[in-house]
# Entry
Amino acid sequence: MGQKNAVSTEGGASPNPSQNDQATGNDHASRNWISWLVDKAASLKFSLAVLLLLLGGLPLSAQGLISATALLTVGGGLFIINLAAALHHHSTFHAQPGLIVFHTALMVLLAAAVVSRLTYFKGAVELTQGEWFQGVAQAEERGPWHSDRLRELRFSHEGFTVDYAPGLKRGATRNQIRWLASDGTMQNSTIGDDISLDMEGYRFRTTANKGFALVLLWIPIDGSQPMHASIHLPSYPATLEQVRHWRIPQTGIRTKATLLLDEVVVDPEQSSQFHLPRRYRLRLAMGDGSVHLLKEGSRLHFTEGILVFEGLRTWMGYRIHYDPAMNWLLASSMTAIFGLAWHYYRQCMRNRWDDDQGL
Amino acid sequence: MDEQNLLWLAMFGYMLAGMAAVANLFIHRSWDRIIMTLLSGGVLLHALSLGLRWQRLGHGPFISMFEILSSNLWSLTVAVTLFYWFYPTLRATAAVTLPTLFILMAWLMETSPADTAIPPTYDTPWLYVHIGFGKVALGAVLVAVGISGIILLRTLGQVRLFARLPDSPRLDTLSYRFMALGFIFHSLMLVAGAIWSLDAWGRYWSWDPLETWTLHTWLLLALYLHLRPLFHPPPMVGAFLVWATFIFAFLVFFGIPFVSQAPHQGVV
Ligand code: HEM
# Structure
């Protein structure tokens, strides 16, 4: 730009007209080229192609054949380009403010969906009663750009109850927890069902996956550090047979642990509540065929060490969910729906359907 | 009278109304009042049946296939009845919409009305909002199906039967508007469903079969809504697309819960 001005003030005309023509021609060509590109990017054929890509891709991603993140990022990105070009290019939008609101909000929605797929986190963790979450999930799925702040979060599972109606129909879950707030203070809360623990954008929720945990202490004979272990028995009362195979850590001692409940915990015949039983025993069937019945506090001697059955606790399975784009998704989708309703309202007010003009 | 008998009686009313609506086309008698009475009577009895069950079980009719079919049959008949009332010139559309509902009735008779229990996570107001929006959406699309049915029947040569109705381009316009209404409520249903799902299971979207296929329906509706203003297809093509969208939506609404047992698989 500065170059062109300098030429015209100095000589009034270009010293080399053909060169100047060529520059304008190039400018024209590139502008033509850009407008051709915008034209193509704004076309509904392009939308249709992206739509078909998404329509074809969704069932594949639902079956896990392609990554939903890749599909949404590519499809969403193409849609955003398509929409932006269309808003710029189609004059029909200019007289229809509702449609502008709708398509712009749709663009934001798509952008939020892409951000969501790139940064989300989904995970699960099981905690024994009294155990603190150490910032690591046992199962997880995450977007490639997820910044892992989960490591800093701490909460502990302090016990729970679940109501059951006759026929083992699950009712309310109440789970007591302690958690470390961002200001460093310790807090107590009760979560369950639709009440989650929210920390730094991560939501921790109780699940139907929960049950009894056998807490054991292993004291090695060689004087090394005693070790605590907790065995999570299968989810209760979904699985009534409370059995787990277990190997004492750092030994070759294998056992089959069975919890024997000497009282009814959840009665299928009447309303009851999941709680820790008072009367129970632990049956340990060893590899050599011997069987031992342990009560809380019982000890079992082996050549390698002593196994202490410290008692029964509960364990709870938590689901973890993180999505920083969630509020954007909600706001943009509501705006989009509002824009569309506004558009159609205006249209219906302007023309009766049975007028000659119609829509 | 118990819930089940009230339901049978209501369905009998719908059936008679449907047959009268079809016969009306050929006989040219005005049975409008009879049809209106049968429809509103049926809707009231059906509402009573659903209400009694709701009160007895302590939750709305949306857990089992029987409940889903029955409540949708009710809401769709309400849509047809309201349209019948507010658009007297287009009452002939009932000859298309009511027989379409016969499929739901036949299916309903096949399913077990066994009692159901509501899982604790279903117990949030957003569920009712979600389902309510879905019913309005499907109702609006069914009305569009009725209107488009007339256009298609005309194309198939049945012009004389519908001679007194507005011309096909005008019908196409009205049908488009109902599809747009359906689209708005379908979108609201998706948003309310996401809020419910976040409340209930801690995630707003998880690509379960029903969610995935509902999104397909939404995209299909969007496709239809674009075709008309941008390509001005003849009414027959528009009508065909309305039917295709409806059949797809119908299969998603009723077929996916049928395949996956629970409305949203894996959540109970
Ligand atoms: C799934 C995403 C989309 C949805 C749900 C959607 C929905 C709609 C709706 C409902 C209308 C109103 C039609 C009417 O006037 O009745 C519309 C119009 C329009 N849309 Fe979209 N749209 C989407 C994506 C796009 C994209 C990607 C483009 C880019 C080309 C686009 C371009 C247009 C244009 C140009 C109109 C104006 C049509 C006219 O009135 O002449 N839309 N859209």
In short: Residues A 42, 44, 47, 79, 82-83, 86, 90, 92, 99, 103, 106, 340; B 219, 222, 225-226, 229-230 surround protoporphyrin IX containing FE (CB under 6 Å). Residues 122-322 of chain A form one domain. The two ends of chain A are 48 Å apart (CA to CA).
